[in-house]
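Re: the 576-residue chain
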Amino acid sequence: MLNTAAKTEAPGTEQELTDGFHLVIDALKLNGIDTIYGVPGIPITDLGRMAQAAGIRVLSFRHEQNAGYAAAIAGFLTKKPGVCLTVSAPGFLNGLTALAHATTNCFPMILVSGSSEREIVDLQQGDYEEMDQLAIARPLCKAAFRVLHAQDIGIGFARAIRAAVSGRPGGVYLDLPAKLFSQVMNAEAGQNSLVKVIDAAPAQIPAPSAVKRALDVLKGAKRPLIILGKGAAYARADEAIRSFVEKSGAPFLQMSMAKGLLPDTHPQSAGAARSTVLKDADVVMLIGARLNWLLSHGKGKTWGDAPKKFIQVDIEPKEMDSNVEIAAPLVGDVGSCVSALLEGMGGNWPAPPADWTTKVNAKRDENVAKMAPKLMSNASPMDYHGALGVLRTVIKERPDAILVNEGANTLDLARGVIDMYQPRKRLDVGTWGVMGIGMGYAIAAAIETGKPVLAVEGDSAFGFSGMEIETICRYGLPICVVVFNNDGIYRGTDVNSAGADPATTVFVKGARYDKMIEAFGGVGVNATSPDELKRAVNAAMDSGKPTLINAVIDPAAGSESGRIGNLNPQSVLKKK
């Protein structure tokens, strides 16, 4: 708060004043928000400086989109809204992708942007970076607010925080016009205008009748399956979820960011028998998971011909029946729902039929055995399996490390190869499948958890946020980036038959990404074999120094769009 005194209208009296800058900072601190991710500039440069001076950690990025991704995943990791601070218009637009990503993935995040003055914007008089930012943001987030008066800053931030974390979490936009920051008011009145949000995300208790219905459907299953989504990981109901799954005896699948709620090596894990359980299950229970494209919308060839009943646990009632009929909807927060299910199961719960669990286990063991030789490959240049086999061992030996993962083949294969052992340790592209989350996620993971981070990147995906390696070096973060470099998108062998330009999916041959981090004082390593990769990653994780490893992958390795090539339309016309 400002310490400057100013004379009031009454002669001989003085009063302490505060302004919009200090009220924004005080509102954040009052609500336990101690970290801001962003890019400085007009009109929020001084806000960042003053927040830093007031004890808030302010991390400056090289691009707002990456700062936004950092804020989004910070929300997932902490259950508090991650805050991204941007300048007006172009900076705001750069942050919008991350805001929409947060909303789609149900991560609590607040995008705070400075903006031009309303009276000029509304008359379209051509102000500096003039734009009606609130109108643009509103369709892309849970809620959007603008604060015009200093006395409303407390309410504005309170509404944003509550909207971000309550119910189904998501992104919120908060618009702060430049003139707001310099508004002055009585310090005591300003302090009284601030709001500490109480019980921002209250428990939503499921109806007893819905709990009974869900358990009746599960008990009647001959081939049950439980699917855990990232909503289950976000809930931090780890012990209750594990107890419920183990008591049910059912095979389970964990969506990629739910991996580690139970170890992937758990005897009930059906991750290596995914096709079998999706096709043959007769009752499927979804906990914090949605029947979107990642699960083929609950229908089609993936799910086979066996009739199925679905049980769905979700905090959002509108999610039910979104793709298929839900026989037993269970609406409430994941923690409350799972606790109620456990209580309703009583002391004795029938085990699933032995023929089902035996079939699933046999298929899982068969697939694991088939994969094992591929993961032992020591070929040079490396293929994906040989390189991922090394990283699989690294994570097994360091289960507390955070794994960030993006790419096409790099992502799709890593999901199945690298086992996770603890919850919220695997962070990836999520529901949208958006590329570019890598460095923002890695930075936030290191900041919010204090744990070492291993970021496994496709060379194409790395290009979206690669300049943030300077940010990693500037803050001295314990992040090891491994770039799987196969000279292109999907593969580096495509040829342009019509001219001299490179094919659209091909990059510079033999690029040395490791040299980039050396320019900023980090450690760069070029690894051409699995043995070299293993030594480099272990050295980086042991040292905690910012490191980038250029992992040379066979340019011919990889497939079109990884495992989702069916989503890439093919022309039906023949070349003439």
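The chain has 22 helices and 20 strands.
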